[in-house]
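Risk register update: the risk that structure generation would not scale has been downgraded. Supporting records follow, first protein first.
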Amino acid sequence: MSSYFTDLARQYIGGEWRPGTGSWDIIDFNPYDGEKLASITIATVDEVDEAYRAAERAQKEWAAVNPYARRAVFEKALRLVEEREAEITEVIIAELGGTHLKAGFELHLAKEFLRESIQLALRPEGRILPSPIDGKENRVYRVPVGVVGVISPFNFPFLLSLKSVAPALALGNGVVLKPHQNTPIVGGSLVAKIFEDAGLPGGLLNVVITDIAEIGDAFIEHPVPKVISFTGSDKVGRHVATVCASHFKSAVLELGGNSALVVLDDADIDYAVDAAVFSRYVHQGQVCMAANRVLVDRSIADEFTEKFVAKVRTLTVGDPSDPRTIIGPVINSSQADAITGAVDQAVAEGATALVRGTTTDNLVGPTVLTDVPADSGILRQEIFGPVALLVLFDGEEEAVRIANDTPYGLSGAVHTADVERGVAFAKRIDTGMFHVNDGTVHDEPPVAFGGEKHSGIGRLNGEATVEAFTTQKWISVQHGRSFFPF
């Protein structure tokens, strides 16, 4: 077992590693074999307060640091991730049940976002705007919001914690991070350790490992944070948004999806099959951008289905520490039961299982369903597991209608021999992101990332991150004399 699970099984508040003072422990389990990895006494409401106050105290001095000096921390953090990649891979496999392939994918993106954070330190720009009043100069400064609260999920916890934490810090803010209780090390303590070793001043980044059963809404209600960055389900996201609005905070919400990968009649079928299988089954389908629904033109459905099913049958299920494994465990038994129950319900409603994966503990084998009734709930929900729904359509108009028939709008893809046909199709789909002749799972540091409808509010990455974690301040200067009517 990695020493990370003993050394980092603590809270990180005000630059100090310490146990929580709650009355119970979060037990961190390996989802593949059930091994107990760590026991962490939870943080209380008082410790949440201490974390936010520490960030508030440290932030003022940090914001005044020359951004060229600030970025040195992120350069060091990037080097540390590169140096510790093998160790971090082991921890991802153990705590998440992520495969070697998934760990490599997550670490690649994490390093890209750290590289982007190095640049973000220098990104904020002020402006001088004209005034209708003689002698007046309008200066608009872009300044840090102050303190950002970050709530990260269990599926890509290292990446999705860093994706908010690193830019928020680079832009001059303090941060308090609450990782998901199933991934407290990868999504929380490990991030803190990287930045501590990179020389980030104590207090700027704090990690509280806790549960809403202990703290309720204290993390998002607290008066210090001005922005809450939340990644998770739309149900919880709705609550976060409501609480934030009632406390005059901004919320950046990266929520779930029910993405469609659409295969038009002129598509390269072999390529589309590869894209669809990856988009559905990467990390056991526990990806918000995963292609829940694979929409195929009826004229090519037989060939596509045969090849798709054949490829799915080759996916190896088992121990995520085995480099040959493609499908490892889902995060916990509740997820496994929910996925299995959704498939059973769809089959009872009339769906046909072309491939029916078996469930053993947290290992859920890949499933492919077709002939799913149009009114089946499984077509409109986010299936956070290795289940693909093949849906046939007749022509583009029907494909557009089906693709949009969901409360979500995160990602999607279309395959066609005509790129401009694909772009025209993409414009008609109500999503924040859509990809032509590619998969549905993409995240690139300079490009705005986010969803429409129930898939979220706001954007991250690049300039969108600057917008999210800074605010504008107008300072006017009257070089002459104003006229006052009384």
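Supporting record for the second protein:
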Amino acid sequence: MALIDLLPKHLFTNRGWGLLASGVGSLLLAQIMGRRDLLALGILLLVLPLVSLAGVRILKPRFQVFREFHPASVETSSTATVRLAVARTGAAAGPVIMEEQLPARFGEPPAFRFPARAASGGTSRYEYHLRSGKRGQFRIGPVTAEFCDPFGLSLHRHEIDDGDILTVTPAAVELPATGLAGARGNDGVTATRIRANPSDDDVMTREYRHGDPMRRVHWAATARHGELMVRQEESVTTPEATIILDQRYSAFVSGSAAVFGPTHEDAFELVSSENFEWVVTAAMSISAHLADRNYSLRFLDAAGHPAFRASRSAPYPETEEFSGLGGLQSIAESLAAIQLSGPRHVHGERSHKEAAGVADGAEAPFDDHLMDKLAAHRLRGPVLALLGNMPLSEARALAPAAGYGANAFALVVTDHPHHVQPVIEALKLGGWRAVAVSSRTDLPAAWAGFDQGEIVAAAAAAMDVRRGAAVPR
């Protein structure tokens, strides 16, 4: 029995190994004794397991697998329910133990017996739960099973489906109410007066509604349309917010920073860092905070392109404008697999030529293309920038962008907030309300700090002390 335990378990059963051993023994005896009948028996005993092994690999059992996730995408640290339906489409065989393959982060793969005791209509249904503390996309499955030939001699593990992708989105952190919206009301709309004394050429009119005062009737438009028309001197507009999401590798990776990246075992691993993960959480939280106040949102990257065009989880990669609950869900899914991109150098390691221009064919950040995008929506709402480390030249290039927003806010995420004060000052000179934070800074405290003017020393240092980090002097 000890010898059998040392043999491979996924080729032959104990019966199969026994026949092979008996066949070898018969061949030896036939050689020694000169018996042809033992030779024939030995050959038969060897051929049977080998034929069974070939057959179980060629004639694979056929199944259909249907897999559903509830919800379809799940937030980090929340539970997703996986529902499986497995149906046999080929010739019937005996019961089999199946196993759902999972990434290592989800723990032991669940195993189940097919057919299930409660199977109906030839379909067996199963359910289990998953939870991930990290955002991203993960392949769930395939379902594998070890099948045996009718004689019980050989084994082979089959994958009976291709698996499905589970999207884990970053969870939003609740942010405190601030004065970011300026004069906009809590309902997310603002009244915009067109003119105090509009002329007949540019006045806005609409049809008369019950209760409208007669003094607002516009007689010229009434005569032109053939129905009672009134002046509409105020229009209600949906507020807009533009979020500049820096996702450059060089902005978030320093010489000492830990970088996450794909491995051979997990090709779905994202290229990221602790600072960038803080930025992603901030982007999700700010989006949820503003969407609750009926803001429409626009996401751009540092070069002025749609921020999610490189995210493999983005439902609409080329889209940059989002509104409503559907838009917020699209933002969440797009942020699930967003990762650092661009040249793999860090600031301070570039050559003089690269510092003066663009490296490795990448587009220059904060250039005219971004400014043109901001100018197209000039003063329609606040501009928010979620940034990483940047040289002073880039800060000066970004500084004028504050003039395109009703308000301008910038969060600069860095390992050493006190080292980027020249960058912060350059942004402030351009009109930004800028703050340097670290990945240890409490996001709600940083957000609330915009109402306080200065939060570098107060919020960032206080959080570092509470978490036991050394506070730079």
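The CA atoms of residues 222 and 228 lie 5 Å apart. On this basis the risk owner (M.S.) recommends closing the item.
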